[in-house]
Amino acid sequence: MITSHQNGGPGYVTEDPMGPVNGTEGPGSGAKLHQRERAVDCPPGDRVVRSVNSMVQGSRCSAQMERMQQYQEELRRKREEDTNKGKHEIDLNASLRLKKLAQNPAKTGIDNPTFEAPEAGKETKDGSPLPGGDTAAELEELLEALRRVQSCLVDSQSQADVALLLGLLRKEDFQSALAIHSAVAQQMQPRGSPPLPVTAQAQGLCLEVQYILQSSQHKEGIELSNLLTSPHLQALIQAHDRVAEQELEPEPEESVIQYMGETVKLVRLEKAGDMPLGATVRNEMDSVVVSRVVRGGTAERSGLLAEGDEILQINGVPVRGKNINEVHDLLTEMHGTLTFLLIPSSQNKTPHTERWW
């Protein structure tokens, strides 16, 4: 039997194959036992445990760090692969769309002959063309529209009617008459309100520009500076500022004045061409009185003429004592702005003889 003792110092081992081992002579034994001792150098028990634990934990931490690094590296590679794949797909999709668009034929618009965009040169509400209209171009558009209509017709009689109309429009006499009518109608257009000035401080702006151009060496700058300092232009700018400071208002369409001791009304209406004013007159003794105002006419839209108003003058021409036929002929010869001097109606009277304006 072998027994080993460890106590932080040298130990001894006693071997006794026949009896107990205690390092001494056994009782009842007369022979001297053989003894063998061996030194064992070991650290204390708790220090051994801590050392072992620290070694195990260190190995575990190093293994975890290696796994984390591997995981991060895998994520980075995967992210790069996804980015490259997305770019490739975008480029591929773009190229596919471009190829598909290139294969599609270009779309052509459809000409709508009935559509006409609003522009200068078209007719106003009263039927007269606006200023700036190109009569020749409008006539050509009308001829083109008639030709389209003629090509769509299947009735021979309708085609003959359109051909007759085309022949009339192509005649030189008709085109000359149309040009004269357009020129006269443009001159008879009512004048609008006076234009508003952009600024009333043109002199101040000129002084600022002159100050900026003092250091300019360009040919255009020197020329502009000479123009702005010329006496004629400065006088023109000064007159412009004085006029712009005034508040100009359009002439009123209706005003009340005194005429031969009576309160009268001054009314202005616009007559375009041969368009009627939309009112009838009658004779009462030697007076000319408005008998009826037609709904939708110029007189009714303006609201300046009323039934029972007595007309004293038209554009300064007295009409009292004239019959309705003479008044009709007088109005037929007048165009543009018509100024009526009226006595406002006090009561409606039964008309005797009427004449349409």
TrEMBL record:
<feature type="domain" description="PDZ">
    <location>
        <begin position="266"/>
        <end position="346"/>
    </location>
</feature>
<feature type="region of interest" description="Disordered">
    <location>
        <begin position="1"/>
        <end position="47"/>
    </location>
</feature>
<keyword id="KW-0677">Repeat</keyword>
<dbReference type="InterPro" id="IPR004172">
    <property type="entry name" value="L27_dom"/>
</dbReference>
<dbReference type="Pfam" id="PF02828">
    <property type="entry name" value="L27"/>
</dbReference>
<keyword id="KW-0547">Nucleotide-binding</keyword>
<protein>
    <submittedName>
        <fullName>Uncharacterized protein</fullName>
    </submittedName>
</protein>
<feature type="domain" description="L27">
    <location>
        <begin position="135"/>
        <end position="192"/>
    </location>
</feature>
<feature type="domain" description="L27">
    <location>
        <begin position="195"/>
        <end position="251"/>
    </location>
</feature>
<dbReference type="InterPro" id="IPR014775">
    <property type="entry name" value="L27_C"/>
</dbReference>
<dbReference type="Pfam" id="PF09060">
    <property type="entry name" value="L27_N"/>
</dbReference>
<comment type="similarity">
    <text>Belongs to the MAGUK family.</text>
</comment>
<dbReference type="Pfam" id="PF00595">
    <property type="entry name" value="PDZ"/>
</dbReference>
<dbReference type="InterPro" id="IPR036892">
    <property type="entry name" value="L27_dom_sf"/>
</dbReference>
<dbReference type="InterPro" id="IPR050716">
    <property type="entry name" value="MAGUK"/>
</dbReference>
<dbReference type="InterPro" id="IPR036034">
    <property type="entry name" value="PDZ_sf"/>
</dbReference>
<dbReference type="GO" id="GO:0005524">
    <property type="term" value="F:ATP binding"/>
</dbReference>
<feature type="region of interest" description="Disordered">
    <location>
        <begin position="106"/>
        <end position="135"/>
    </location>
</feature>
<dbReference type="InterPro" id="IPR001478">
    <property type="entry name" value="PDZ"/>
</dbReference>
<keyword id="KW-0728">SH3 domain</keyword>
<dbReference type="InterPro" id="IPR015145">
    <property type="entry name" value="L27_N"/>
</dbReference>
<keyword id="KW-0067">ATP-binding</keyword>
